[in-house]
Amino acid sequence: MSPGRKSYTFIGKSISRPIHGKIPDYTTEARPKEAEKGHKGRSRLKWNGSWLWEIGAVLLSIICLALLVAFLAKIHGTPYASWQYTVSPNTIVSVIITIAKASFLVAVSACLSQLKWNQYRGATSKPLYSMQAVDQASRGPWGSLDILFNIFTGIRMDVLTLTGASITVLALAVDPFAQQILAFPERTVLASNETALVRSTHGYNFTGHLTRWSGSISDTMVSSLLVGLAQHTDPLASQCPTSTCTFPGFISLGFCSHCEDVTKDTKQVCGPWSMSDPTAYSLHVHGYCNYTTPNGVHFMGEVNADAVPPTEEDVYLTYDYVYTDLLNNGTSYDSPLLYFVAASERRVVHWTRQNRTAPAPKPSISICRMYVCEQQFSPSRYIATDSSTHYSKISHTQELITSYNEKAIKLTPANGAEFLSKDPYDLDADTLSDLEFTLQGVFNLSGNTQNGLNSMNFVPIMQKRGINETMASIAASLTNNIRSTNNPLGENLQGEAFKSESFIDVRWPWIILPMCATLGSLVLLVGTLMMSKTQKVVLWKDSIIPLMMSQLQTTPEHEISSLKDVNKVNVLSRDIRVSLIQEEKEPLTFTEI
Questions:
Q1: Are 216 and 434 in contact (CB under 8 A)?
Q2: Is residue 6 part of a domain?
Q3: 464 Cβ neighbours under 8 A, 6+ residues apart
Q4: Same domain (yes/no): 334, 352
Q5: Comparing C-alpha atoms, which of 252, 255, 253 is closest to residue 224?
Q6: Angle at CA 364, nearest 5°, toward 361 and 367?
Q7: Cα 415 to the center of its chain, rounded Å
Q8: Under-50 pLDDT residues of the chain
Q9: Strand partners, 500
Q10: CA 171: distance to chain centroid?
Q11: Does one domain contain both 116 and 155?
Q12: Domain containing 402: what range?
């Protein structure tokens, strides 16, 4: 080998090259002027040797979050149907969060990369492995988890490094949290293009009378009477075109009924019942009774037939009858539409010689009235799935006394009370008299059947259901008729219709994690920047050139080891072509060739 040359082994083969003096001093900042030639002006802004990229990234992340908050505030509570764009709100949120996340991770990665150099500048020495650990943390969540787990193995890290590792790990949850920010629940809102109606009336007039007091009520009123007798009356349903409606309270003209049970106060006088049957006569059973109600009505309890053939010791008699007696027979404008006493009984009574003088059991006796009244309905809420809400409910009623005044009906509240409604009532006299005439024909079962329905059909109805329920059903059915559209004097009261709609609901707590991660990256950047400035270290960050410079041999014109300007080092390193050469019995060295 010629003098002045040195031998190297390069990837298994030997080469020789001239020696250019001793290794330069790495502690100085000066470098040969030749190394600067051709590189002036290549990088006016010192991107690599400053925090400009990281500051810009954090600012971009903060701007994204500000835009996200503004966007969410704008769409919060708006109907989803009003969203007219092809891209869904969730997509926009995802894009903004992704940009923000990518931006703050740029800063976090750079800070961790710089901290791996800064940790060796203090007075306390650190394990060599710490550089490897922090470098891995700067590359992603797995290395950051390793940093956090190393706390339990005794390897200490500074607060900034742990902060950066924590932010990197938490960033994994940013995207799932972003997907939870928006929800699209259902809510009930006013349907402005729909109309909800409930019927009311302050008058009734049937113009199809044949003659006065002829009982010629309208066909719809006849139908209502039949429905009421059969107790198939359903409340008049409100009209709701949607799933939910609300209706105001209102007052309407109607018909009311009241039945008072006077069974206990009715006097009963029973005596021996005689008929052609000798056994019954010989027992002298007291099956023949006269009754006197508190208001002075007298009637007799009748026995229809023997339940079973009598014997010398037993008599089984069947009580099976319905009795009514009008207390206001004929039309009278200053009395209720219907006022009568009713008695009903259906049972078999057993007499023996021992109890033959026992009186027959009292029938159920009631005094009933049907009259014109005011009905006050409470505000109501209609729910399509709940049939009990499909009609307005009566909260209060007030009897109206009818009187004849100049061919017109005058209505006056009973007992000197005030009208519930401020609006006047209009009730035709002939209509009222015909209705009264018809009702009396239905309920008079004392043997005088007047015009109207066949009173015999009323017997089984009353026996099965009771007079009180029957009267209430008829009154409700007649009221439904005059409140319905069958009555030209009725009116529509407007309610409010509501519909269900999906709306955009922002769940603000789910944005806390992205905000904390972004603000944490800002704190980390400021802390790393201040530490680096205090220690006066070169901002090598993720560069590996400093490690190569410790084992790098270059020509004098490419001297790089003493440079501390990162930009200049990066520019100059582009012109240096090296190979990994191992000198005999020497460590691996990057050598310029």
A1: yes
A2: no
A3: none
A4: yes
A5: 255
A6: 140
A7: 48
A8: 1-44, 209-210, 213, 279-280, 447-456
A9: 188
A10: 33
A11: yes
A12: 196-257+370-500
Q: In 3D, which of 371, 358, 456 has the Cα closest to residue 413?
A: 371
Could you tell me the CA-to-CA distances from 493 to 134, 243, 496 in Å, in that order? 76, 18, 10
Structure tokens at 107: 């800063």
Q: How many C-alpha atoms does 240 have within 13 Å on its Cβ side?
A: 27
The token pair at 114 is: 């710089």
Paired tokens of 65: 């979050």
Same domain, 241 and 120: no
Same domain, 271 and 396: no
Beta-carbon contacts of 259 under 8 Å, excluding residues fewer than 6 positions away, are: 342, 366, 367, 368, 369, 467, 468, 471
Task: Compute the mean pLDDT over every residue in the chain, rounded to the nearest whole number.
Answer: 80
Q: What is the pLDDT of residues 176-206, one digit of tens each?
A: 999 999 999 999 899 989 999 999 999 998 7
Residues 237 and 124 in one domain: no
Q: Residue holding tokens 């310029």?
A: 592
Q: What is the number of other CB atoms lying within 10 angstroms of the CB of residue 591?
A: 20
Q: Where is the domain boundary, 312, 344, 365?
A: 365
The answer as to whether 588 is a domain residue is no
Q: Is there a domain that residue 215 lies in?
A: yes
Of 365, 396, 424, which closes a domain?
Answer: 365
**What is the C-alpha to C-alpha distance for residues 255 and 438, in angstroms, rounded to an integer?**
15
Residue 247 CA from chain centroid, whole number: 21
With b meaning 16 or more CB within 10 Å and e meaning fewer, what string describes 16-39?
A: ebeeeeeebeeeeeebeeebeeee
Distance CA 419, CA 493 (A): 20
Quote the tokens at residue 407: 């061919």
Q: Which two tokens stand for residue 432?
A: 């009222």
375 plus 487 within the same structural domain: yes
142 and 246 housed in the same domain: no
How far is Cα 119 from Cα 410, in angstroms, rounded to an integer? 103
DSSP-derived letter for residue 586 is S
Task: Determine what percent of the chain falls in helix, strand and coil, rounding each to the nearest 5.
Answer: 35, 25, 35
For the stretch 428-473, pLDDT in tens is: 888 888 888 888 888 876 644 444 444 445 556 666 567 888 899 9
326 and 416 co-located in one domain: no
Q: How many angstroms separate the Cα of 558 from the Cα of each of 34, 318, 539?
A: 8, 132, 21
Give the Cα separation of 137 and 156 in Å (integer). Answer: 14
Position 34 in a domain: no
- CA 529/CA 426 separation, integer angstroms: 90
